[in-house]
């Protein structure tokens, strides 16, 4: 993909979004880094373009030369068993992680079509591949965004718009750090054994392989520019391994290698 025009990144105040916005600007795009709270991006100077809340279409202000849209804004919630879930937390998460993605992408399509070739890139999560307990709300919202991208890919291909999905694993972000420690599920006696095993496996296999956001961002922008690549990309060792597993195996094999292993160890 040739580099000219604008790129807009949501949720760019920190973490992956901030790093991707800076990397796109470094590569040569006129980068519009948006966020719900503009003061949170005070260190980004010229790359910051003010407030955009994906749940509030009145804040959508898309540049006329937009060629790359990065749907990165997202939230999570307490990691609880489904039995003890707060349905309002689910609704709040879907409002941002799904409906916000749909609303902003819908508004951007006419501009991206006019500036083709162009790209819609959505950041989901590699957790949607594995049977991770207590992440049902977060995984469901990201899986919905992933399915949305599958259909969108077919719809907008005739308009010269590519659809790219990034499925990060452990990236050193605020969201990742907040999910460390004892999980909320451990408060419930029936679920404590499984929660303890899940936390142990994370400490052993995910935490030591965490990747800096800038490193992940370089891989993500490479994917955006890769006109001959697949739809889905990882951006760290864990997500790359999970994607390889997903591409080689059926759902039951993936479950046996991830979810069933957790269950066996918690008994």
Provide the fold topology.
Layout: E1 6-9, H1 15-27, E2 30-35, E3 48-51, E4 66-71, H2 87-114, E5 118-123, H3 136-156, E6 161-166, H4 174-178, H5 192-205, H6 213-225, E7 232-233, H7 237-248, H8 251-257, H9 259-266
Parallel strand pairs: 1-2, 1-4, 2-3, 4-5, 5-6, 6-7
Helix pairs in contact: 1-6, 2-3, 5-9
Describe the protein in words.
A seven-stranded parallel β-sheet has the order 3-2-1-4-5-6-7, with helices on both faces. Helix 1 (15-27) crosses helix 6 (213-225) and helix 5 (192-205) packs across helix 9. The model has no long low-confidence stretch (mean pLDDT 90). By secondary structure, it is α/β, with parallel strands linked by helices. The protein has nine helices and seven strands; from the N terminus they run E-H-E-E-E-H-E-H-E-H-H-H-E-H-H-H.
In what range is the share of β-strand residues? 5-15%
Helix content: 40-55%
Gyration radius (Cα, Å) is: 18 Å
Instruction: Note the run of SSEs as H and E.
Output: EHEEEHEHEHHHEHHH
What is the total tally of β strands? 7
- Average pLDDT, all residues: 90
Shape: globular
- Give the terminus-to-terminus CA distance: 51 Å
pLDDT under 50 segments (min length 5)? none
Structural class: alpha/beta
Strand order of the largest sheet: 3-2-1-4-5-6-7
Task: Report the total helices.
Answer: 9
Major sheet description: 7 strands, parallel
């Amino acid at each position: 993909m040739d580099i000219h025009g604008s790129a807009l990144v949501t949720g760019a105040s920190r973490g992956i979004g901030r790093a991707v916005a800076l990397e796109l600007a470094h590569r040569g795009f006129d980068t519009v880094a948006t966020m719900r709270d503009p003061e949170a991006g005070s260190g980004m100077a010229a790359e910051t373009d003010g407030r955009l809340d994906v749940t509030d279409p009145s804040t959508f202000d898309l540049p006329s030369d937009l060629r790359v849209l990065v749907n990165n804004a997202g939230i999570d919630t307490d990691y609880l068993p489904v039995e003890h879930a707060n349905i309002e937390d689910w609704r709040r998460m879907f409002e941002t992680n799904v409906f916000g993605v749909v609303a902003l992408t819908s508004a951007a399509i006419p501009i991206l079509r006019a500036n083709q070739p162009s790209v819609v890139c959505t950041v989901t999560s590699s957790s949607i591949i594995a049977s991770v307990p207590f992440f049902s709300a977060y995984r469901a919202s990201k899986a919905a965004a992933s399915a949305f991208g599958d259909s969108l890919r077919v719809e907008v291909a005739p308009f010269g718009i590519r659809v790219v999905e990034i499925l990060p694993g452990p990236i050193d972000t605020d969201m990742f750090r907040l999910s460390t420690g004892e999980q909320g599920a451990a408060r419930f006696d029936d679920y404590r054994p499984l929660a303890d095993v899940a936390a142990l496996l994370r400490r052993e296999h995910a935490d030591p392989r965490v990747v800096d956001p800038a490193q992940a961002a370089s891989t993500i922008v490479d994917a955006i520019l890769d006109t001959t690549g697949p739809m889905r990309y990882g951006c760290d060792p864990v997500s790359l391994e999970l994607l390889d597993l997903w591409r080689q195996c059926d759902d039951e094999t993936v479950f046996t290698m991830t979810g069933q292993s957790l269950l066996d160890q918690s008994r």
